[in-house]
């Protein structure tokens, strides 16, 4: 499939009109000879038809999520409506940096076997920015089982559309709360062929101060347990197993489920005694520090749990 044809960019959105317009302005500034089609998918909110329009070089289409409510269903609505040879993702609060699309299409053209190409990111949190890049230009499944590699952010994803729809498959809409749906999609893509990576920050990812409610932490725990059940490959990668178990322990601690947090922290240490998330979970479960404060400290350094 040609990399010079149209690129379709799927932008799920919900109640963030100002950030959305900034994201769209950055997409308009990209240059691609085949033209850019942007599919803005409104999830659980009324579509803004005023955003639609454009020309052969850059056109915006406005859709409502007609699948499962949530991020996964919104992404799939856009993927299935896309007319481009290539499909990209961009979250409504992120901004593509100049040259992003040109660099990725060139990478796909140079590597006909690649199905997905990602880039590094620039994390913005409050008034701090941190560049996060990965030196490896090809990322196999084993690397993604060991580490989430958050530099491979969904707003950097660019797929060959036929590989995504007919091979890798759509975003899984059964994941609780659509949490980590991007990571699961990466795992599926890497099962087929290594993910191509450009070690340059080409997307500004905006992290926001937020407080998760108990129900959200429970959803996160359920989604991570879903991942462990769905991917038996984790059983052979202690470091990856410990990472997910530690995240579950932290989520349970943040939700106030002290006994579950202690149980998952113990399971984490059994898999990898040096996994720091186990000890962060214990600190939260014991009341030494609150989960929101820990997240703020990590986010200022461009990192998360």
TrEMBL record:
Gene Ontology MF: a single term: transferase activity
Transferase among keywords: yes
Name of one Pfam family that matches: Glycos_transf_2
Gene source species: Pilimelia terevasa
Domain of life: Bacteria
Domain Glycosyltransferase 2-like: 8-164
Keyword Transferase assigned: yes
Protein name listed in UniProt: Glycosyl transferase
CDD domains documented for this protein: Glyco_tranf_GTA_type (cd00761)
Keywords, comma-separated and alphabetical: Transferase
Residues spanning the membrane: none
């Amino acid at each position: 499939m040609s990399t010079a044809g149209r690129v379709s960019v799927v932008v799920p959105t919900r109640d963030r009109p100002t950030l959305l317009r900034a994201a769209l302005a950055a997409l308009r500034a990209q240059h691609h000879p085949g033209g850019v089609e942007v599919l803005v998918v409104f999830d659980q909110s009324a579509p803004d038809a005023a955003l639609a329009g454009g020309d052969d070089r850059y056109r915006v289409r406005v859709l409502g999520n007609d699948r499962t409510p949530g991020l996964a269903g919104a992404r799939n609505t856009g993927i299935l409506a896309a007319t481009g040879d290539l499909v990209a993702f961009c979250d409504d609060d992120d901004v593509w940096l100049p040259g992003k699309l040109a660099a990725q299409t060139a990478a796909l053209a140079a590597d006909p076997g690649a199905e997905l190409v990602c880039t590094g990111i620039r994390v913005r949190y409050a008034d701090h920015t941190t560049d996060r890049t990965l030196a490896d230009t090809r990322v196999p499944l084993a690397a993604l089982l060991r580490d989430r590699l958050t530099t491979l952010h969904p707003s950097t994803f660019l797929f060959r559309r036929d590989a995504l729809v007919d091979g890798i498959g759509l975003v899984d809409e059964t994941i609780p709360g659509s949490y980590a749906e991007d990571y699961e999609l990466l795992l599926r893509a890497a099962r087929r062929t290594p993910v191509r990576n450009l070690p340059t920050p080409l997307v500004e990812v905006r992290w926001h101060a937020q407080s998760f409610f108990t129900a959200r932490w429970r959803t996160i725990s359920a989604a991570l347990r879903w991942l462990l059940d769905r991917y038996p490959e984790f059983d052979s990668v202690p470091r990856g197993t410990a990472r997910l178990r530690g995240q579950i322990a932290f989520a349970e601690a943040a939700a106030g489920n002290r006994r579950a947090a202690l149980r998952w922290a113990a399971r984490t240490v059994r898999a990898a005694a040096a996994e720091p998330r186990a000890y962060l979970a214990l600190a939260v479960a014991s009341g030494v520090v609150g989960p929101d404060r820990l997240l703020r400290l990590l986010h200022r350094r461009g990192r998360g749990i």
